[in-house]
Design brief:
Helix content is 9%, strand content 34%. Keywords: Glycosidase, Hydrolase.
Length: 624
C-alpha cells in the first residue's frame, strides 16, 4: 500500500488499476462465510414475497363522508412572497385573513366515518384552510379529489390545541417522534397513533397537502423554516449557495440556539443521574440546552416521555405526515409541499403500501419519506424532489429503540430529483436496518445545474447512532445526469484518525457508506456501528458537461468505516470494519477526482466485479 492508503486515504489511481488475484478477497471473509453467502436464499424472491403481500388492497366500507356536509367551506387565496427553499423565494398563494377553518368539519367527518365502521372522508376540489391536524382513526380513508388543495395553517399554536396531553403553557400536545427520539410536541399536520386499516389518498398530484412552511407567520418575519436556525450557505455546506438570499431567523427562536426554558443542569429533570453522568451527556458547553440537543440529552438520560415536554416555547418543527404504531396503512396519489420538517415519517408501522405520491418540498430537513422501525413496506411509483434525503430508512436514535429495526422494505420504480441522498439508510438507525431491497430506480437529477442530487446510494451512521445494516440489495439504478460533482465534508473530532474535511462523505460520491457521520454533533459516542452484506448491481451513472469537463461525480465510491478514535465510552470497543460489500456490473462514469476515484477506510472485503470507472473496467477486491 502507499503511505496514504495505509492511513485510509483516497485509493490512488495506480493501485486502483492494479489487478488483484482472483483467488479470493484480499483480507476478506473466509471460506465458511463465502459458502454461507452462496447458499443464501435468492434476495429478489424475498423481495417479491414482500411485494405480494400488497396484491390484496385495503378495504373500506363503501360510504363517503364529504367534509362539506360537516360544515367545511372553501377559501379565497391571495398572492404572497414566500420561501420555496432555503435559498429561493417566489410568489405563492395563501388563504386570506379570516378564511373559514375546516379543521372542525374534517375532524367531525373522520369521527362519524369511524363510528359508522369506516369508509372514505372526501375533501373535494378547491382551496381549504385547515387550522389544526387531520387525525386519522381506524378504518378511515381520507381522500383528496383532484384539485383539492389543503392549506395547513402556519400558526404553530394550531398544532398545540388538540393533542391528548394537556401540558399547560406548552399546549395540548401529541406523542410524536423527532429525529428518532420520543417526545410530547406539536402534532404533525396529518397524524395517527395506534390505528389499523387507514389510508391517506388522492386522485393525482393536483391533490395537495401544503404546509406553508415558507410563508411568514402572522405579524412575524419568521416562518416554520426559520426555526431550523441554519446560517448562510458556504463552500463546505451541503446545499446550493444560490444568489446570497436565504431564510432568515430570529436568534434565540430556533432549534439550535440555547432555549432558556430548558434547565441549566440535566440533573434538574434527570435526578437519577450522577453528576459525572450528567456532565458526560451534556458535553463541554451549553449546546445541549438548544432544543434539538436537549431532546437528545433527555433520551440519553432515559427521561420518561411524559417529561419530554416541548410544544409552545420550543422550536422543534412538526412533520407533515406522521403515523405511529399503525398497521395496514396506505399512502397513495397526492402531493406534499412546503412542509415544516420531514414530509412523511411513519414510525413502527407494519404492512404499509406507499404508491404514486409526489414528495415535493425543498425546505431544510424536507425528507421525502422516512419509514422508521417499520416492517413489511412497499414504496413504489413515487416521485421525490426534496431539500434533504428523498428516502431515508430509520430505526430510532440512542436508547429510543423500543420499536426494533426497520426491515423487510422494498423500494421500486421511483424517480428522484434534488436531495441530499436519493436512497439513504440512517443516520437515525440505532435499532438496526435489515432486508432492504431497491430496484428499477431513476435518480433523474434534472436540477443538476442549480440544485444537484448530492449522493445516489447513501448509508450514514456514527459512534452515537450506532446500529447495524445487513442484507441490503440494490439493482437497476439509472442516473442520467450524474450527481453533484463538487465535494462536501463534515468536520471531524479533535485528535481523530481522519483529518477534518478530508473525506467527501456529505456530497460527491455515487455510492457512499459513512460510518463517521458528522461526529462533532454528538456528545455521547458509545455505539460502534456494523455494516455488512451489501449487494449493488447495474448502476449506470452518466456524465454531464460541467465547466471543468465531462463528469458524473466527485468520487465514485466512498466508504468510511467506523472510526475508533470517535468512541468516548468506557473500555476499548470492538470496532468492526465495513465488510462483505459487492458492487457489480456498474458504469459509474468519470469522477472529477481521477487520481483517487475511490476513498476507503476500515473496509474488509469490498469486491468490484465489472465496475467501470472512468471508462476502465475494474475486477478487484479491496481491504483498507
Amino acid at each position: 500500500m502507499q503511505k496514504d492508503e495505509q492511513k485510509g486515504g483516497g485509493l490512488g489511481r495506480r493501485r486502483f488499476l492494479q489487478a488483484l488475484s482472483a483467488a479470493g478477497l484480499a483480507g476478506g471473509a473466509g471460506p465458511a462465510a463465502l459458502a454461507a453467502s452462496t447458499k443464501a436464499a435468492d434476495p429478489w424472491k424475498e423481495a417479491q414475497a414482500i411485494i405480494d403481500r400488497f396484491k390484496k388492497p385495503l378495504k373500506f366500507r363503501d360510504e363517503d363522508f364529504v367534509v362539506t356536509a360537516f360544515g367545511a367551506a372553501t377559501c379565497v387565496t391571495k398572492p404572497v412572497t414566500a420561501w420555496t427553499s432555503f435559498t429561493e423565494s417566489d410568489t405563492l398563494q395563501t388563504p386570506v385573513a379570516g378564511s373559514h377553518d375546516c379543521y372542525p368539519a374534517i375532524a367531525a367527518a373522520i369521527a362519524a366515518c369511524h363510528k359508522a365502521g369506516g369508509g372514505r372522508v372526501v375533501i373535494p376540489a378547491g382551496n381549504w384552510l385547515c387550522a389544526g391536524p387531520i387525525v386519522l382513526l381506524s378504518n378511515v380513508n381520507v381522500h383528496l379529489k383532484a384539485g383539492a388543495h389543503v392549506y395547513f395553517s402556519n400558526n404553530p399554536a394550531d398544532y398545540a390545541k388538540y393533542g391528548a396531553y394537556d401540558c399547560g403553557k406548552n399546549g395540548k400536545l401529541s406523542i410524536t417522534r423527532w429525529e428518532g427520539n420520543d417526545l410530547l410536541n406539536y402534532s404533525s399536520m396529518v397524524y395517527a397513533h395506534g390505528q389499523d386499516n387507514i389510508a391517506l389518498t388522492g386522485e393525482d398530484n393536483t391533490a395537495i397537502l401544503d404546509g406553508q412552511a415558507g410563508v411568514a407567520f402572522d405579524g412575524d418575519p419568521d416562518c416554520w423554516w426559520s426555526w431550523k436556525g441554519r446560517e448562510k450557505p458556504n463552500w463546505a455546506g451541503d446545499i446550493a449557495a444560490g444568489a446570497g438570499n436565504y431564510v432568515k431567523h430570529t436568534k434565540g427562536k430556533t432549534e439550535v440556539h440555547v432555549n432558556p426554558a430548558n434547565p441549566v443542569s440535566l440533573r434538574e429533570i434527570a435526578p437519577h443521574l450522577s453528576e459525572a453522568e450528567a456532565l458526560f451527556i451534556q458535553g463541554p458547553n451549553d449546546k445541549w440546552r438548544t432544543d434539538s440537543y436537549y431532546l437528545r440529552s433527555l433520551a440519553e438520560a432515559r427521561v420518561p416521555v411524559a417529561k419530554r415536554v416541548f410544544g409552545i416555547g420550543h422550536y422543534l418543527r412538526p412533520h407533515m405526515v406522521q403515523f405511529i404504531s399503525c398497521t395496514n396503512v396506505l399512502f397513495e396519489g397526492y402531493q406534499t409541499t412546503n412542509t415544516p420538517f420531514w414530509q412523511h415519517n411513519p414510525v413502527n408501522c407494519h404492512d404499509m403500501h406507499v404508491k404514486n405520491i409526489y414528495a415535493n418540498s425543498m425546505g431544510p430537513n424536507s425528507d421525502g419519506f422516512d419509514p422508521e422501525s417499520c416492517t413489511n413496506v412497499l414504496i413504489e411509483d413515487c416521485h421525490f424532489n426534496t431539500g434533504d434525503d428523498c428516502i431515508a430508512i430509520d430505526s430510532g436514535k440512542g436508547p429510543d429503540i423500543q420499536f426494533g429495526p426497520a426491515k423487510n422494505i422494498v423500494i421500486q420504480n421511483c424517480k428522484m430529483q434534488s436531495g441530499h441522498g436519493a436512497l439513504t439508510l440512517g443516520s437515525i438507525m440505532s435499532g438496526g436496518i435489515e432486508n432492504i431491497y431497491a430496484q428499477n430506480l431513476v435518480f433523474e437529477n434534472s436540477n443538476w445545474k442549480s440544485d444537484p442530487l448530492n449522493i445516489a446510494i447513501r448509508l450514514k451512521t456514527n459512534m452515537s447512532r450506532g446500529g447495524y445494516l445487513r442484507n441490503m440489495h440494490v439493482r437497476n439504478v439509472h442516473i442520467p445526469n450524474g450527481i453533484r460533482t463538487t465535494p462536501a465534508f463534515y468536520s471531524t473530532l479533535p485528535g481523530s484518525l481522519i483529518p477534518t474535511k478530508s473525506v467527501a462523505t456529505s456530497a460527491g460520491g455515487i455510492i457512499t457508506i459513512d460510518c463517521g457521520y458528522d461526529p462533532i454533533n454528538d456528545n455521547v459516542r458509545i455505539r460502534p456501528p456494523s455494516v455488512s452484506h451489501v449487494r449493488i448491481s447495474n448502476v449506470t451513472c452518466a456524465n454531464v458537461e460541467t465547466k471543468a469537463g465531462s463528469y458524473s461525480c466527485y468520487q465514485a465510491i466512498v466508504i468510511l468505516g467506523p472510526v475508533a478514535s470517535d468512541y468516548n465510552g468506557p473500555g476499548k470497543p470492538v470496532v468492526l470494519p465495513v465488510s462483505d460489500i459487492e458492487i457489480s456490473d456498474c458504469d459509474l462514469g468519470t469522477p472529477v477526482n481521477t487520481d483517487k476515484p475511490m476513498y476507503l477506510y476500515n473496509v474488509k472485503g469490498l469486491k468490484l466485479k465489472n465496475v467501470k470507472i472512468g471508462g476502465k473496467a475494474v475486477n478487484q477486491s479491496f481491504s483498507a
